[in-house]
Amino acid sequence: MNCSLWNRNKEKEQIQRKMDDNFGGSLTPPVSPNVIEMMETDMECCRLPCFSCVLGQRDGGKSFSADGYLASGSLNRLLLRLDPSPTGYEADTVDIFGFRWVTEMALVESPKLLFGLFRQQISRLEGLAQATSCDFGHANSVYVEADEIRQQCINFLQYIKVFIFRYLESSRGLNEEPAHPYEELEAQLPSVLVEELHALTLFIGQLREHSSNILANFSIQNQGKVIYAHQFMDLTGENLTNVSLFEDHCFNLLRDLIVLAVNKYTKVRPSEVLTTCHYQCSCIKELWVLLIHLLDHRNKASQTENFWSCCNNHFRNLLQEAAGVEGVRLCDATHCKDPQGFIWWLVTHLTMLYVFDRNGITQEKKQIGSNWSFMEELLKRSSNNQTGVLEEHLRMHVQCCLTLCDLWDTNSNAVSILWEYYSKNLNSAFNIPWLGLKGLASVSKSPLSMLEITKTCCCGDQSPNLYQSQNSFQFFLRILALQITKGKATNGTHPWKQLKGRIYSKFHQRKMQELTELGLQNFFSLFLVLAAVTGIEDVVSRVSELLDLLKPSQLSIAQQSLIWKGYFAFLLMYEEKNVDISVLATKLSNNFQNVTKEFYLKTTDHTRKVTLWPLLSTYIEAVQEVFETSSCLHLSEEKLLNEGFSLLYRACRESELNTALMFLQVVLARLRSVHKRSIQLLQQPRVSSHSIPVPLVAKERHLAIATALWRNFFPFVKSQRLSQTPSSQVADIAAGFTLLAMDMPNTAPSDLQPQPLISMLQLFGWDDMVHPQLVCRYLSHLIENSALVDALTSLGCSSYQTSSVHSWFRCVLQQHMNQTVGVTEKLDSTHTTGRVNKEQLAGLTRIVYKLPEVESLLLQAQLDQSAVKVEPKTAVFIFIKAVGKTYTQLQTLGDKSALVSKALDYVGDILKYTKPYLANKGLPDGLQLMYWTVGCIVKHWALILATSKAQQLLFRIIDCLLLPHTLFQQDKGLPPAMLSAIRDNLSLYLQGLSAIIGQTTVQTTYVKQQLRNIIQQYFGRFLPSSPTGSGIVNHPILLALCESIPNTQHQTLRNMVLLVLNENYMQFRGHAPPPRLAAVLSFLHELLRRNQTSDATSETKLLLPTVLKCSMFVNEQQVKQLTLEIMQCIIENCQSSNPSQVCPHLTSVLRHFIQEYIGIYDHQVYNLMELIAGLNRDLVIGLIPTLSQMLKDTEHKRGLGRNNSQRESYRRLLILLGEEGQAEIIKLEKECDDA
Question: Per its UniProt entry, which superkingdom is the organism in (predicted)?
Fold first, then answer.
């Protein structure tokens, strides 16, 4: 046990023995409680003030209990010298410690007895506090007993205050006569009270020395100290002895509370310094508030030390103790390892208690007494470079200082002290290692982030977790901003005048050259804060002067980039303050242009260019932030868009170009948006005269910005329109420039005048040389823009819809233009460079189908418009079909001629912009799409292509797609992909060309000849070597003939095909049959089998002789079978018109065939006739006369008499012919007999 505790116990034993001697072993109070009736008084009905840690519903959410000395008004009544209990102790007797006493005399007559009873109750309470039990029932009884004792002690202390206020008179003078014995006792009462109260304090001991369980229940004993301090200060303030005793007591009480706070501080982390309070419970908090009001009130009344002065004495002792200086120790059992941090923490939280008034109510605007005189000394200790300052400690100290600056009055000395430290450590990172990434200092990524940090430093909000997110230098900046703004608001003087010289004087050329990247970051943070709270132009001027001391050649790219960011942060501040930026913008843009010149030069090393790009990207991103944050763009922002950009874009690589193009896109969009808003302001009918110039000035500045964009950016964009690998951003930017030409046409360059809007559309949207990917995205932005449509209409551009449809049509056809050979559409579009985005094309398709011109075509053609929901290829087919169908419905020649012209405009020079498909000779997807589309045009626009206007297009389609020169070059031939595309789509061309032949036009003969050539060239190319498999049934020519087409068109094509087959694929060379005869016959059989002809006579005359010849001369079984089936089809076709009679055309053809071949090939002819007889006996019966006559003629010609072999063959044929044959046999035999 230490010495202090041993002395306290010794004094306590002596007081206890003295109390026992006074009581004499038994208690006989002046008035027995057994003989006096219990009387209820007002005092007994009200609850006496006391410390309480429990806040209930009746406390109304207040900080202190309603039973406490603050909320109950007890402190306020004391300081106002009012009756402590105006409604209490009004009866003649009062109940104290279970006994009745005379209210007006008890304290004078029996003070020692009462205090002895009081000490006895305290001992009982201390014993109960030390008792421990796990029995909840016992614990509850202990609590009830302890609370009863506590109320009795409170009652006694309250009685003392009331008695002194009501009944104690001032002492008589020295010359007065001896008084009544009671008066003598009354005169001695102050001294007795001082003695008893002093003995009581010794009996209780120091608050810090009690164990934790006693401290939790011991707040009642502290009331003895507080009540003594309250009453004795008012009644005996003149007594030096009493004053000395009061001061000693306050000193000890403060020391006890500080020791308790030290114990609490050991568990406080630096990051929790503002969230962890210094008191263990609300009782201690209330005790602190009572001391604050009591000492400050006494200071005003008696010119004694105020609360802060008393605390400072202890603080100094604490600091001396830590420094090893001999003196008064705070407590032997307690040692503070971090006295500076503890004092900052405690002073901060004590200052927060100043917001409570005498009634415990928070007063937000209350003026708080400061303690700057001591805290300045402490601040010097905290920022002393010689002692080695740790950021984790300094951050906590400065954060506490920031809180004090917010609560106290202004103090420029605090700023000066901190600046003295930070001016020497600007290059420091101010990091705390154990905070990890949160505590790492980093250079701001953008000017806007620098400005945001400045705003956070200038705002009044102070979050408790700032310790982790901001460093001590940023806390200093907060203090600086707070002191300046607060000083201007409260004192009317400008603290900046006092601080300006101190801050500026620290910067000179050597200092600026010593700044690292972090140092420059802190430099800009400082001056940005100064600019925010003082005059911005003066600060920017000073910053510019200081930075001019640095030579760019001595700075790293990172440092130059940071300097530019800092300048742009000032520009953003200019924008917020609505100040013109021309001076600073010109300086920045000139620096930027100098760097771009070096970046552009071909002599600049590649590595150097890579190094310069971060600096240039900093400028680009910063200018973008300026445009995005500016509300009106009327502060000379065009100064930032100088000629340097024209050099930059031409020197950028692809990755760098994306950043630069994104910037331009944002600037264009921002300019148009702001300009539109300013125009709306100008058009408002009710605008006050003083506000009109602002939109007018803004409009002028917008024109200047637009001119700068056209001059320095558009030439590069225009140069990219013919790129074969265009960026989607170029399309977006071109659309932006187009809308800019619509909004501000006068700003466009001269080469786009006089109608820049139409010129832009022609350059980027309607030119066939522009890549489809660019056109597709470009038009998607514009076609649906109602303002643009109105502008085009006002300019008299009625053909914009036709031109847009043509561009869409071209985009669909060219969507595979850059596809690599062998790559199919199954691959993701992102893997094919320059490939049209499928979604964009589908989107453009939907937009085009909403054009009034297209909707009208679909409506006239009565076609479903649901095609807008399907793929572009299907949409193209429906569109082509709609145009062709609409043409057939037109009646007047003028309407037809107009639609022909428009249709030709829709497709344009289709062979020119699809030429790459033919040139590459290996793009299957592109070739398929091209041949299919043109085939649909030939088929559905046959009547249009038959006109003289479309004659050139038709001839080019035939010559380039169907009959190219390579087709006739045997050593080359067509590429497989091209041949495949023709195979898949040839039927469309054949059907369309056959329809054109049916028209009476000048070019009919030529088209007919070309159609014959097409059939001749591709029939054999697509004919399989044998008739097996699907090669025959899927032959494109057969498919063209078998599809449902008009009868006239079908018959024309059929006749042409049969003529080509007969002349080129079924003719014998001598006795040698034609090649692939079986396959040709198989094709012919399929054709005749699938549909009948309307011109059976012509087909019979054309085909039957050749088929008969094939059957007669070719012994191949497959050929014989096919010829038999073909003959059957021919016979059935001829007989179909008049089944009851033999077709004379058949008879004629067969007769002619017999006459031609029977003389030499008699047996073969008879065998052939036998086959035909099996198909149609009547047909052969009709030929009996011819056969018989030819038999006779051949015998006669031979001159050898009867030819028995021939006659036998003929006889076999006649047997098959029934009665007519038998009759002919008899007739021939009879003729022979007669001969």
Answer: Eukaryota
